[in-house]
Amino acid sequence: MSRKNESAIPRVLRYIRLLRVVALGLMTILGVGCSDDGGNGGGAANQSPIASFTAAPTTGNAPLDVALDASASGDSDGSIVNYAWNFGEGSTGIGITASHTYTAAGSYTATLMVTDDDGATDSTTENISVTTATTTHTVSGTILSPANAAIDSDVNDSKAPYASNDTLQDAQAIPNPVTVGGYVNVAETGESGRSQSSGDESDYFTGTLAQNQTITLYIAEPSTADLDLYLYNDTGQLIDNSVGTGTTESLTIPSAGTYFVQVYAYDSASNYNLTIGQSATSATILDLRLSDEFVPGEVVVRFIDNVLPASDEDTVAARVAAVGMKARAGAPGRAMLLSFGEEEGKQRAFQALGIDRPNRDMWLYQAADPQMRRKLDTLRVIKALRSRQNVLYADPNYIRHALKTPIDEFYSFQWHYPLINLPEAWDVTTGNSNVIVAVIDTGVLLRHADLQGQLIAGYDFISDPAISVDGDGIDNDPDDPGDDSQNGSSFHGTHVAGTVAAATVGTTGVAGVAWLTKIMPLRVLGKGGGTSYDIMQGMRYAAGLANDSGSTPAQRADIINLSLGGASGSQAEQNVYTQARNKGVIIIAAAGNNSTSSLFYPASYDGVVSVSAVDMNSDLAPYSNFGTAIDVAAPGGDTSKDVNGDGYSDGVLSTCGDDTTGSIQLVYKFYQGTSMASPHVAGVLALMKAVYPALTADQVESLLQNGNITGDLGDSGRDDLFGYGLIDAYKAVVAAQDLAGDGGTIPATLIVNPVFLNFGGALTNVVLAAQNGGGATLTVSSVTDEADWLTVSATDVDSNGLGSYTATVNRTGLADGTYTATITFTSSKNTVLVAVIMQVGSAASVGDAGYHYVLLLDPDTFETIDQVEVEVSNGRYAYSFTDVFSGIYEIYAGTDSDNDFIIGDAGEATGAFMSLDQPVSISVNRDLTCLDFSTGFSVNLPTQSASGEPARGLLIRRINKVKGISR
Question: 705 in a domain, yes or no?
Fold first, then answer.
C-alpha cells in the first residue's frame, strides 16, 4: 500500500466516528418517550478509555534503556486505536510498547496518551530518574573467524605476527577451500611499515588442491598496483600464470595434487584476497594467462589515434617502431597485428617498452622451456603496452580451435532435426535465398555435392602461411584444403555449413536446417586452429566492415555462426562483435566443449548468442559448457552413445570431407560438440528471417527470454545448463509469423538447495531442501552419492520425496587431504547434481582472519574512543574493553594489512556488532559481556569488464597507540 493511502486512513476513521456520533444522536432523539420505562431510550454515553503503562527501569545511570508497556490500558465500551508517547526530553513514539534511551542525567516525565474508537482520550505519566555513573565498566565478547579464512604471514602491519613466505622454500600452508587476506609491495612503495623499505614482492602459499578448482586473486587497488598470480607443481616447476591488468587474476588447477601459489607484486603495493574454491571464476578480457593458447611473439594492438606522447610518433610506422616491434597486418583506426621476432627483436621491444626490472624469481623463468619463455616474454610485452598512453588495448593473438570430436561412421537419419521440431517448421518455410549465414570456420569444401547452389563468395583470412596449409596468406579463396591434423583433416567448416543449409533436394545426402539459405564461407582456422586477429577480420568482412582484404561483400551476412573459441577474451574482439551487431548482424557462437561453467569466447561476449549442446535425450551433453552466459541449447550429439539402437553413434550427421587416403573425399560424418549445436540455432534463425526479414538481434534476445522460440528444459525459465531452453524451430517460425503480422502449464522441475556443500575441516552435517519448481507433479526417484565417506538420508520428506535431506561426512580413517564428491538427486523430470568438498587433518584448519584491532566508536562522530588488539585462538578472538565510561557506542573490528591505520580497506577483514551490514549501538551503564560477532574477508566478484577500483567498505581509523592519538 502506498504512503498516500496510509495517510488517508486517520481521516476516514474520523469521518466514520463522526457519522456514528450523529447516528447515535438521531436514534436518541427519535426514541424519546418510546421506551417502556419512560427512560432515555437506551442511548448510553461513550466511556473514556483508561491509560496505564509500566516503565522498567525507572531509575539508573545514563545511558538508561527504559522499556515501556501500555498493554494494561483499556476501553470498557470499545477499543483503543492509538498509543502516543512523550518521553519527557523532546522525543516521542507510538505503539502499545516502546523503548527509549535516556542519555543524560536528569528527571524526566514519560507520558502516555491513548485514544479510543470514539475519539475520547486519556493520559497518565511515570517519573524516570537518570543519574550520572561514578564508575567505569567492562565491555567484552568474542569475534568468530570464518573457518576458511587465512592471513598472509608477512603483511605490512608491524604489530601482526610475522613469518616469511617470500620464497618457495618458505611457502605458507593454507587450507582448501580458503580466502586469504594479504599484502605485497615493491620496495619503496606503499604505506610505511614492515616491508615498505625492503619490499615484499612475493607471497608463496602451498596446499592440496583438487582438479578444476579455481584460484582467483582479487586486487584491492588495481588503479595503482599490478599484482600477478603464478602456479607451480610440487617440484617447483612453473605450471601456469595469470599476469593481466584488471582487478582479478585467475587460474584453474589442471589435476589433483600439491601446488605452490605465488602472489607477485609487478608494480606498486596493494592488499589482496586470494580464493581457492569449487566455483570457477572465469577469465576477463584483461586477464593474461600463460596456459591460454596464443601466438608467441605476436600482439593485437589498437592505438589511440589522437594521443601522441612524442612528436615523432605521428605515423603508424613510427608508433610501431617506438614500441620496438614490426607491423604484420591491420590499419590505422582499428586493431593491428604486431610482432617482435626472436631474441634480438625481443630485446629491442623490451628496451623500447622499459621492461628492465627483473623478477626476483628469474631462476624460474630460466628453468622454463623455450616455448614457455617466449610466451612469458609475450605477456610481459603486452603488460607494458597496456600501460602506454597511446594504446587503447593490447591482447595476445589467441589461437581458436574448432569444437568437435570427429568419427568415421555414417548415418542416414538426422535425429537432431525432429528433436527441435524442424519437420513442422518446414511446413511453414524452408528458407529464403536472400538470407545469408556467414560460417566463420575452417573454410568449406566448395565442391561438395550437397553444398552446390548454397554458397556465395567468401574469403580466406588466415594470414600466416605456416598454418594456412594452402601456401599463402589471405586471399579470396575460402576452399578448405584441410587442417592437416594427425588423424586426418576435420573439414569442420563443411560440417557446420551443411547443418545450416545443405541442399535438401532429391533422395541423397543430408538435409540442412534452412534449405534455401545462402552460406558465406570465411576461412580463419587452419593447421592447429586460428588467431583472434584473423577471426576478427572474418567478422568484419561478414558484417560489411573495413578489413584486411580491402573489400566487403556485395551483401553483408544476416547471421554469423562461430563454432570456435577459447578461454580468454579481449577488448579488441568485443569491439568487433559489438560493431557487427550494431550493423544488424545476429551472432551465434558455440559455448565450448570443456564441461565447465567458465566463460568461453566469443560465445560469452556481449551481443553474442551462446549455445550449449544436448544429446538425443535432451540432456546436457557431457562435454558441453554451461553457466551464466548460456542463452539457448541445441542438438550437439553424443558419439559415445547409441540410444536408439541403430548401430550408429548419436552424433550430428552433416556434410564433410575425408583426406586420410591422401586425396579429399566428399563424405558425410557424425560429429559431436557445441560446434554442431550452434549451426542448428543459426539455421533456425535463418528460417525466421525468411518469414520476417526485419528480424533483429534485440528481438531474438526478447523472444528467447520470453520462451517464444524454445522448449523449456531443466529448471523453469532460464538456467545455466540450457539457457532459455532447447531451440524449437516450429515455435520460432510461428513467432516470426506473429512479428510479420501473419499470423500452457509450467513443467515440473526439481530444485535442490544448496548445490555446493563445503564441509571444511570440522562440519559433519548439512541439510538440503528438494522442491518442485514447476506446476505439474514431480517425484524424486533416487538420491545417491559416490563416496564411502559421504551419506545422504531423508530427514523430512513427503510422498513425492520432496523435503529435507541431510548429508553427512565421516572422516574416520581418511588420510589428510582434500576430498570431493557429487550427490545426485534424480526425479521424474530432471536430475540435480550437488558438489561436495571436505578436508581432513592438516588440510583442515580453523579460521585465522589476521591480527585484529577492535574499536569502540562514538556512533555519532565515528571517532575511535578506545581500541584493543587481539590475535586469533582456535578461530576466535576474545576482546575486552576496560574502564569504559557510561555512554552509547558501536563496536567494529578488522585488520590493517597495509598499515595505513584504517580498517575496512578492500582486502582486509572487517566485522561489527551485531553485523557489518547492520551495526547495533550498545548502551553502556554496567558491565556487558557476550557481545559476540563475526569478522571476515568480503570479496566482490568483478564484472566482465573487470576494470577500475573495487567498491570500498566503511573506512574506520584505528589508534596509533605509540603516539596516543587516532591518525
Answer: no
State whether 448 and 519 are in the same domain: yes
Which residues are designated catalytic? Answer: 441, 492, 675
Verify that 190 and 118 share a domain, yes or no. Answer: no
Coil, helix or strand at residue 21:
helix
- β-pair type (294-303, 226-232): unpaired
Do the domain assignments include residue 405?
no
- What would the pLDDT profile of 414-432 be if each residue is shown by its tens digit? 888 888 888 878 888 999 9
Q: What is the CATH number of the domain that holds 212?
A: 2.60.120.380
Kindly give the interhelix angle for 674-691 and 492-501, rounded to the nearest 10 degrees.
30
Instruction: Name residue, grid cell 561438395.
Output: 448
Above 90 in pLDDT, residue 686? yes
What is the structure's pLDDT at 962? Answer: 47
Q: Does residue 658 belong to any structural domain of this protein?
A: no
Are residue 123 and residue 178 in the same domain, yes or no? no
- Residue 210's pLDDT band, with cuts at 50, 70 and 90, is confident
What is the C-alpha separation between 668 and 67, in angstroms, rounded? 84
HEC string of 851-876? Answer: CEEEEEECCCCCCEEEEEEECCECCE
| Final residue before a domain boundary, out of 225, 245, 277 | 277
Whole-prediction pTM value?
0.63
Residues 43, 49, 50: CA angle, nearest 5 degrees: 140
Instruction: Determine the structural domain holding residue 75 and report its residue range.
Output: 48-132
Residue-wise pLDDT for 773-792, tens only, equals 555 688 999 999 989 999 99
Based on the domain organization, do 566 and 596 belong to the same domain? yes
Tell me the C-alpha distance between 889 and 868, whole Å: 15
CB distance 208 to 176 below 8 Å = yes
Q: How many helices (H) and strands (E) does the chain have?
A: 14, 55
Q: Residue 529 has what pLDDT?
A: 87
- Measure the CA–CA gap between 200 and 170, rounded to whole angstroms: 13
Residue 117 shares a structural domain with residue 243: no
The one-letter amino acid at 223:
S
What is the total count of domains within the chain? 7
Residues 565 and 464 in one domain: yes
pLDDT confidence of residue 281: 47
Q: Is 316 exposed, middle or buried (0-12, 13-18, 19+ CB in 10 A)?
A: middle
Residue pair 850/895 in contact (Cβ under 8 Å)? The answer is yes
Cell numbers at residue 437, please? 549465414
Which of these, 162, 158, 136, 161, lies nearest to 866 by C-alpha position?
Answer: 136
CATH number at residue 440: 3.40.50.200
